[in-house]
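Next comes one such specimen:
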Amino acid sequence: MSNLTLDSETQSAWDQFGIKKKMKMGFQFGVGYEMALSRNISIMPGLFYSTAGANFDYTVENKSYTDSYSFSGLMIPIDVKISFNGPFVTVGPYIGYLFSGKYIPSEGESTDLFKADDSGNVYWNRLHFGVSLGAGIVLDLGGMGLMVKAGYQLGLSKINKPFDSTDTSSLKHNAIIILAAIRI
């Protein structure tokens, strides 16, 4: 489940207008590799196709609306994993590249966020980065392992660009990750 973190000024303005931000269900699939550094410490790089976004609920003249932002792209995490004979914790940076982004209003046409406006400006960044934290367990399945992990991705870079010199808004990616994987 993903969401967008807003800077405090933008969040305050949205609160005044009754705009409620909600998480949006997404998914990731891809491949990862675990390289042991010692018996209990390993590096886990990966390459994942990912979908993300956020929903926004608001009311105008007693009519409720839900608009959304939807993104898809690649995520490349590089986690350090510390194992405790089954249970483990992970932490590490990630970098992401957004292939597509859309603003989807309750009514009307969706907008391609990476399409330049009439002046040639694009107001969204394709490249973003952050840090991920997680914990899980590996269960032995006789030669293979089932890995179950819960984690959080905290965006550190803005995915939006300023509209003009007075725009100080900041939107950052964040997500709750639930992972099930087969280790070969």
Observations:
- The chain has one helix and eleven strands.
- The chain has a mean pLDDT of 90.
- Residues 8-16 form the longest helix (9 residues).
- The domain at 2-183 is CATH 2.40.160 (Porin).
